[in-house]
What we know:
The protein is mostly helical. The chain has helices spanning 2-16, 29-47, 50-74, 81-111, 115-145, 148-182; strands at residues 19-21, 24-27.
Amino acid sequence: xxNGYNKIFWGIFxxxxxxxxxxxxxxxxxxxxxxxxxxxxxxYRHTHIESFNRAKIFGIMTVIGTFIGFFLSxxxxxxxxxxxLLIVFYTVMEVIMFYKxxxxxxxxxxxxxxxxxxxxxxxxxxxxxxxxxxNLILLNFTLMFNITYLHILVGIIFIVLRIYLMVMTYGFRxxxxxxxxxx
Length: 183
């Protein structure tokens, strides 16, 4: 479990904070999502919880969407209608992937006597869902009406949400790190 959560943590970090050297992205976002996908696979193999498997499926779609988006940005097609639809598509896939990831974690915690973590995760899942859906609606308004200030706000909220997920995943990872040190 520790390794799966660790991969997810670092994948979110790489997907959020793309490392660039001048104009060249050394670690583009899709590589971060591939690492997240690997972490979801580790969690599924360890637990056989279906929510982790579904998170993997949405993770694959997210990787494909961000991969295509990466190459569209190289081709300077950022403002085409296809590019805008792609942004909405992979953002929705990302939200569903993380929803399923948290849902699978809740199920694992409930099944393995981590009820405090499960209850905490339920609260965090509700917060994540409400803020993500609100931000998706704002993203659509931003793309439809080209509102610059709203675009900045949407970007900031997405970064805050990913940091929120990183902190939550770090907590999960440390729970299993403590268990490894005990056992």
